Every structure is written in structure tokens, then in C-alpha cells.
Here is the input.
Amino acid sequence: MADAITNLEALFRLDFEMNQIQDFDLLLERILLEARKVVHADAGSIYVKEDGAEGGRLAIKYAQNDTQQNKLPPGQKLIYSIFSIPINEKSISGYCALTGKMVNVPDVYRIARDAPYSYNASYDMLSGYKTTSTLAIPLKTTEDKLLGVIQMINATDEAGNWGPFSKEDEFLINHFAINAAIVLQRAYMNRVMILRMIKLSELRDPKETGPHVNRVAGYAAEMYDRWAYHHKVGDQEREKFKDAFKIGAMFHDVGKVAISDLILKKPSRFTPEEYDIMQRHTLYGADLFGDPQSSLDIIARDVALNHHENWDGTGYPGWLDPVSKEPMRNHRGKLLGKKGEEIPLTGRIVAIADVFDALCSKRVYKDPWSREAALTEIRHLAGTKFDPELVEIFFESLPHIEHIQELYPESGIS
Here is the structure.
């Protein structure tokens, strides 16, 4: 009885904590982590429903595995394969999504012959990890709409032994999934509203696509996470800031909505006068968050204003006159750019993330650079355009940055 009360108290605490997370992707990752804690699962995956022909598909968004994670150096995170599966009765998660029912399998290698689903052992062969028990739970809204599926893998006892998931595990995870779906739906609607705002920028500037802003925000969040690890930022502070930063980074170029199409869509090089106008998108973007109501507003403002500043002081818009709010210039008319750590950390991080994604992306005026050429350029610009420490952080984060490129391909779902 005492254990049940303790578990329920933990669930209530988790409900509150998850409601504090604003970013959809970070919430998915946290939901998976906490679901595993609730039922003491060694590993697990979380899938999101993608609409499409023949009932849609489940796309993996996050996977976690304590056994595999413990083999990595401190501060490193597990890289997982990206794939999707059809929503049908052939797989455990697909069957869970199709029927909307929980599926508890004590041993995936001993599934009853009359069961409609089976287990694909190739996943274990590729990862070198043996799955035994699994518990799949649908994530459904109060209107019974399927959002995705959580799959728990290998229930673990106090001695570290793997066994089946219990009836109590089913009860706890079901309660958890109900509340997780509620906060997930809220975060999803936030993401939709943000991407609708980004769509306004995309209508003006074809470079500002949903996948582009998701990639830049994802790169930035990973770089901040690694920077915070090196600077010994506490977990709670790190997670809170990362959450707001990931959303704020999506608005880095939102000020372009105020720039004329004649400039935004010009296929040739800008004149000096046009370039001056183009630079003002940083001011327009920051002005959207000029009356900050939250830490997210402050971060979004700083990112919009500072992501084109250069480490050596040659960027824009530079220092602003406190009265006119216009960029300040020296006696030669040159902008007084911020330099070094005068540039906010968020701006310095997004500067690298934005340039790297632009280099790797196709534009009307250029083909995408090769991976090697883009990485060479980022390294070359350390100490002039970019913060040298953050360039090193970028390369430490590269496996995760490349993983985000796979998650948000230009032609994919944003």
C-alpha cells in the first residue's frame, strides 16, 4: 500500500513538472524518460503518429537505453536509428496504435502463435541488445485521437534482473499516459502555432521553411546542452533554459516578414543600400519581443537581434543607440558591432547553427555544400565569425546535429 501511495505521489509530481515544458520535442524525450522510471524499464521508445495513406505510420522520435547509455563517456547521449512503421497489426507498437489498447508481452521471443503481431528480431541484431519484455501504451487525447505510442522495454527489478511488466506497472503507466497525452497535445498545439508563424516568414522568404527552423533550433539546443555540461550548469537550470531556448531559436529570422520582396527574393547580390535594409530584419525580429513577458520572450529577442553578430566585431546590427534604438556607427560610418562575449550566448550559438544549416541546404542561388566542405568552413571561421569555444562544442555535438538533419529533412514533415 505504501509503495502504491509513493508511486501515485510521484505521478502527481511528474504531471506538474511536465506541464512546465513548452517544447514538443523536449517534452517527448522527458515523457519517455519518466515513463521508464515509473515502471523501471531499462529501455524504451516513443513514437508519434504520422497521418498518411492506409491509416498512417508511427515515426520514432526518441529512444533510450540505460544498458547502452552506460557504455558511453559521461555527458554523451545515445544515438538511435530513425525509422517508421505502419499502423497495422503486424508489430507490437503498430497493433497498440491500431487497436488503441495496451499490449504487455512478457517475452517477445515467445509470443503466442495465435497473436496477430510478432517481434522483428533484426532490431536486436543491429543494436547488440536483447529485448525480452515489452509494454506498449497508446497516447490518446481526451477526444480519443491517437498521438503516438510509448513502448517500454525490459522491466528491471532491484537486483538489476529483467522480467515481465506487472499488473501494477500496467496501472501506473496507463495513468501516466493519460496525463502525458494531455500535456503533449498542449505542446503540439504550441508547435503548430509557432510553425504557422514561421510559415508567414516562409511565404516571404522561401529559405525560412519549417524543417530549417526545426533543424537550427535542434542544433542550438544540442550545443547549449553540451556547453552547459562543460560549464557545470545544474540539471534543473539547464533543462529549463534549453526548453525556452529551443523555441526561441526558431524565431531567429522572423523579422524578415518586414523586408520587401524586392530584396528578399532578389536573385543577385545586394547593393550596399539593400544590404543595410536586409540587416534590419534583426531589429524587426527583436522588436516583436520588445515587451518581454517571459524568459522565452527574452531569449527569442536576444536570438533575433544577435545571431548575425561576429566574434571579431564585424557583424550586425551591433550596439544600438539607447534613445533612437538605431545601430550606432563610428566616424567612418562603420557599424559598432558587438564582439566576443559582448554577444549573448544564445546569439553566438544560433550563429553557428544557422550558418551550418544554410551551407548544407539547397538555395535558388546555390547547391548544398558537401558535409566536409561545410565542416571545414565552420572550423575556418572560428575566432573571426564564431566563438572558438562554441565551434569546439559544435564538433562535439556533431553526431546529434547530423541526427537532427535526418529527423527534419527538407522534404519531410515539419
Remarks:
- The first helix runs from residue 2 to 18.
- The chain has two domains: 2-188, 199-407.
- The chain has a mean pLDDT of 89.
